[in-house]
Structure formats: structure tokens, C-alpha cells
Design brief:
The chain has about 230 residues and is mainly α. Helices cover about 75% and strands about 0% of the residues. The protein is globular and about 75 Å long.
């Protein structure tokens, strides 16, 4: 939403800002109140690359938000293009970038900075692609899981891009966050995990925000319908 407003100058009803604030706060509170062991919280175990990791995470979030807002802009500006066409184009570009990285990966070891931050242990030998193919040859049963994982991702993308083309990325993000919270609750019930009081508060904020958006959105829709009927009668 921040990029929608700042980059594309899009405006939303006031309640949508409140909903986003509730959902974001809920996720943040849930994460912050996650219990950690004394070993994990020990200062001696804090990696010196934490700042680099936070920087990469910030870049990821920035481009993720920019992708969503740009997709909304494309859907609104270039109406003939459908969600399936956008999905095809994005996957072609992703495949090109991933293939390029896998082919260049063995050569990253010759550049210390790139090898340290973007390489892998396999990069110093034959590369990640060769290591992955060798792993599949040693464990052929994993190939079925890989294909199933890819198929689930492909089917999921169909629904993602349908939502993008028919509604908006803001609704898609709301659905995604809600799905993750529902998955978390299912994990709690299925595996007998326990949540802290703060985590339950985060869950309440997320679902409270989603529920409020649904109620207010439905009320506004009915209000517009009544106003339209009054105009027709007049």
C-alpha cells in the first residue's frame, strides 16, 4: 500500500489504512512474541552479518511491494492483458534469471565478495545446479516431491494472478496473510504447539482487521446499491 500511495499516487478509503495497520501490527506482534531459547537469544550467538541480512530482507520487501503495485498499474493501464498473460511473462523472466544465476554460480568463487554473500559451498566446486542434479540422482524418490511441489506452485499462481487481475494486490496480500495465519493455527492444533499471550493478541489483530474490512466493505457496497436505486427512481 505504501508504494501504491507514494509511487502511483493511488488513494484508498480511510478504513483500508486502518485494516492494513491492524494486520501489519498483528504479524509484527506475533513475530516479536515468538518464544526463543536462551541459546538463540544469547548475544554470543548473534551473527555479524545480521545487518546484511536485514538489508537484504528490506530489499526483498521493497521489490515485493513494488511488484504488486506495478502489477496493479499494468492491469489498470493495459486492459487487454489478462492475469494468465502476466503470469506467463513473469515466469519466463524468472526462469531466465534463475537459469543465468545457476550457470554463473560456479564462477562466483573467483570474486570474494560475491562468493561470500551470493555464493554457496557448492559454488566453489561444480555449482548449485550440478550439486542439485547429483542429489536427485542419489535420491531419485525426491523427484516426485519436486514435481508435486512445482505443480502446487503452478496451480496456486493461477489463483494469485486471477485475484490480481479481477481485484487488486491489496486484497491478495490480505488473503495471503490470512492464509498464513490459518496455516499457523492449524499447525498449533495439529502438532500441539503453544502460543504466548502476545502471539494470541497478534492473531486477534490480524483476523480482527480482516473481519472489519469484510464488514465495512459489505456495508459500503450496500450503501452504493441503495444510492443507485434512489438515483434510478429519481
Amino acid at each position: 500500500m505504501a508504494l501504491h500511495v507514494s509511487v502511483f499516487r493511488k488513494r484508498y478509503p480511510l478504513y483500508k489504512y486502518a485494516v492494513v495497520a491492524l494486520v501489519t501490527s498483528g504479524v509484527a506482534i506475533f513475530t516479536l512474541y515468538h518464544p526463543s531459547s536462551s541459546k538463540q537469544s544469547s548475544k554470543s550467538n548473534i551473527s555479524g552479518s545480521s545487518a546484511w541480512g536485514l538489508f537484504l530482507l528490506s530489499i526483498n520487501l521493497l521489490f515485493d511491494g513494488l511488484t504488486n503495485s506495478t502489477q496493479d498499474y499494468i492491469n489498470g493501464t493495459f486492459a487487454p492483458y489478462s492475469g494468465s498473460q502476466m503470469m506467463c511473462a513473469q515466469n519466463l523472466i524468472s526462469t531466465l534469471l534463475t537459469t543465468s544465476y545457476l550457470l554463473l554460480n560456479p564462477y562466483l568463487s573467483t570474486f570474494p565478495f560475491l562468493s561470500e554473500h551470493f555464493g554457496s559451498p557448492a559454488a566453489s566446486t561444480a555449482g548449485e545446479l550440478t550439486a542439485a542434479l547429483a542429489f536427485v540422482r542419489r535420491n531419485p524418490a525426491v523427484l516426485q516431491d519436486v514435481v508435486l511441489f512445482a505443480a502446487c506452485g503452478a496451480v496456486g499462481q493461477v489463483f494469485i494472478f486471477y485475484t490480481l487481475s479481477k481485484f487488486s494486490s491489496l486484497l491478495l496480500v490480505t488473503i495471503t496473510v490470512t492464509r498464513k495465519m490459518l496455516t499457523m493455527l492449524l499447525s498449533v492444533m495439529w502438532f500441539g504447539h503453544r502460543l504466548t499471550l502476545g502471539q494470541w493478541g497478534g492473531v486477534a489483530l490480524v483476523f480482527g482487521g480482516v473481519a472489519a474490512e469484510g464488514v465495512i466493505g459489505r456495508w459500503e457496497k450496500k450503501k452504493k446499491e441503495r444510492a443507485g436505486k434512489v438515483v434510478k427512481r429519481g
